[in-house]
Amino acid sequence: MSTGEKVKAQAEQVVGRIVRKGAHAMHKNTLASKGAALEARGRMRSAKEKTKDTLGH
C-alpha cells in the first residue's frame, strides 16, 4: 500500500472517530452519522489498498 494512501485511510478513520464520538456526546445524531460514514470510508480505503498489495498491483 502506498504511504500516501495509507496515511489518508488512517486519517479518515481517526477524524471520523473523533467526529462521531464528539457528536454523540453532544447528542448530534446527524453529525455522528457523518463521522461514522467517514470512519467507514477510511476502513474501506485501507481494505482496498491491502487487496491491491495482495494482488501485486
- Biggest sheet statistics: none
Low-confidence stretches: none
What share of the residues lie within helices? over 70%
Measured between the Cα atoms of the first and last residue, the distance is 9 Å
User: What overall geometry do the principal axes of the alpha carbons give?
Assistant: elongated
**Overall pLDDT metric:** 91
SSE pattern: HH
Broad structural category: mainly alpha
SS element count, helices: 2
The total strand number stands at: 0
Strand content: under 5%
* Cα radius of gyration in angstroms: 13 Å
Structure commentary:
The chain is mainly alpha-helical. The chain contains two helices and no strands. Helices cover 88% and strands 0% of the residues. The protein is elongated and about 45 Å long. It has helices at 3-25, 29-55.
Secondary-structure topology with pairs:
Elements: H1 3-25, H2 29-55
Helix pairs in contact: 1-2
Notable characteristics:
single chain, 57 residues, mainly alpha
